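Bumping with the actual sequence this time:
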Amino acid sequence: MTRDLTQLEILTELEDTAAQALDRHLSVAKDWHPHDYVPWDEGRNFAALGGTDWDPEQSQLSEVAKAALVTNLLTEDNLPSYHREIAENFSRDGAWGTWVGRWTAEEARHSIVLRDYLVVTRGVDPVALEHDRMVHMTNGFASPVDEDALGNAGFLYSVAYVTFQELATRISHRNTAKICDDPIADRMLARVALDENLHMIFYRTLCGAALDLVPDQAMEAIDLILENFRMPGTGMPNFRRNGVLMAKHGVYDLRQHLEEVVQPVLRQWDIFGRNDFGARGEQARERLAGYLESLETVQIPRFEEQRDRALARERERGPARNRPKSPGNPAPES
């Protein structure tokens, strides 16, 4: 390419690829219904209808499971922000518009089923959960990368980000299922994770096509999002505390991020084997290689050393004192 393509030009060039990816998605995606995954016979009225309000003793979930389920639910709750971000960077016409609508409709099921499960089983305090939903959705979602840094790459940034984010969310849901110790939650989260995987495949396909079309521009976008990557739940109430619990207990941590999310996608795109980059793409690839090396040799070992020390301290204190304050019933934060 003798010049950078504009966002509109990229969208136009990739329209056929988007249509093919959409057709593939529709051919393999299976409809499912949130009500089929919720144990309704465990439900009962709250005080407003003459029943009993939530009490911590009613929950059968561990503190880590509560933290993970609340974080995953609040992430899904913020769908309007993600829809706006995607819609602004994708076209609303043709295959692009159809995909954005379909993706939004499928993602909405996730918040429906997670919320119904938690309320019916009384897994977490519904009042605190609603407070946190209001705060998180009011704050919305903002790109972790400054708009000036994105330049002409809004679409490229978005499609690269959601590729990694959808896969990360899939892994978080599956690992959450393991710690819930509930076959109903396991079945529910496996269903949600399957959706996330199919979404990842769509975005991975489009980003791969963008790499072929505008390799330097796409490589710069990939490097930019990975060096500034933040999960979409960043900024929600109690996110730091819940994120620490999740990382410490194997729901989602730096090593999983590198080995189960970043590296498999980069291999799929053959990032370090391609020979079609110009000077800018090569520089971005070198920056990314340096960042990945820092993750593997410095950041991950440091995290794991700190995690192991923290877990050892918890074991020494014993189970009675090994219970952080429930993230399902936090003090309100603004």
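The tokens above came from a reply further down the thread. Residues 33 and 221 are 36 Å apart (CA to CA).
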